[in-house]
Amino acid sequence: MSWSRTIIAWHWISSAVSLFGMLLFAITGITLNHASQIETTPSVRQSQLELPQDLHALLAEQDIDGAAAIPREIAAWLRDELDVPIGSRAADWSDNELYLSMPGPGSDAWLAIDRETGDVEFEQTQRGWISYFNDLHKGRNTGAAWKWVLDLYALATLVFCITGLLLLLQHAPRRKLTWPMVGLGIAAPMLVAILLIH
């Protein structure tokens, strides 16, 4: 009896931990599967700025060619002016331009700074909430922290499924449809994959 209680405890705990994740992935599975039928109108924001003289001078002092973070002072000014977190992302530096790509879930953004004039161009495209949650589903442009969240949800879902299988084994003798239903859940997608996916 203690073995059964332990399985039930793990089953409900894992279901509680994975509940939001399973709902999110089920709903976004539908929206991803029908992405071409869901119309969205992207919102594009463009800004043009000019670096203050002291920051332009700081930029001119940088002897960088290749990938490197934007100096903290310039990143802080850009963050305040554009209301966009710059962080320590690596930008592409060349003799005459600094270019920073800033993709995120449901959005794309970039900024370019002319190293000679100090002119700043910024563009951000927001594709809406559905696109945001679809990108969370795929782990696209979400960063390391979200990947850990996905791993946690996956682990909790595995525990939920395995303990569910153990509960099925325990209760199957009293419920004759248990294994036919499990078999249907396995056979149906396999037959579709084998016969209808080309």
Automatic annotation (TrEMBL):
Q: Which domain of life is it from?
A: Bacteria
Q: Which UniProt keywords apply?
A: Membrane, Transmembrane, Transmembrane helix
Which residue spans traverse the membrane? 12-32, 148-171, 177-197
Transmembrane helix found in the keyword field: yes
Q: Which InterPro entries does the record associate with it?
A: PepSY_TM-like_2 (IPR032307)
Q: Which Pfam families match?
A: PepSY_TM_like_2
Name of protein: PepSY-associated TM helix
